[in-house]
Design goal:
33% helix; hypothetical protein PF0899 fold; 153 residues; 3 helices; 24% strand; three-stranded mixed β-sheet; alpha+beta; elongated; 6 strands; three-stranded antiparallel β-sheet; disordered N terminus
Amino acid sequence: MKVSRGRVVAEIASAMSPGHPTRRPDAGDCTHEEREVVHEVGIMHQALEIALRHAEQAGGAPIRCIHLRIGVLSGVVEDALRFAFTCLAEGTLAEGGRLAIEVVPMRCFCAACDREYETLDPLDTCPGCAAPCPPLGGQEIEVASLELASHER
């Protein structure tokens, strides 16, 4: 059975509603964690669409693995993205496949030191002079590659 993004978002939204049995009685509005899951569902839906389109172009080959590059500044929570993949892949060519995530560091340029550096901590300063530096990269969210199963004919 193919699970649509709309259905998953609706089920998550339902589970977040005040009257839902699994919701904490004191929860109030959506928690930060619940909003993250909804955010990652949208991102995973788009990545999965790209992967499924390529798998269909390859004759409907099952997807063994989707390799994503996710920048440290992208705001993506890896666990929420993996949860979204599990939900959305059900009933598609990606069901049973893996999700491989490469975390891309933030790239910065320090004008004072005239040097570029990378870091996984968005609060890091220049390792040479400790000056705060604007990021040049680290916001990436991309499907880097796919591993497709070969078809026996």
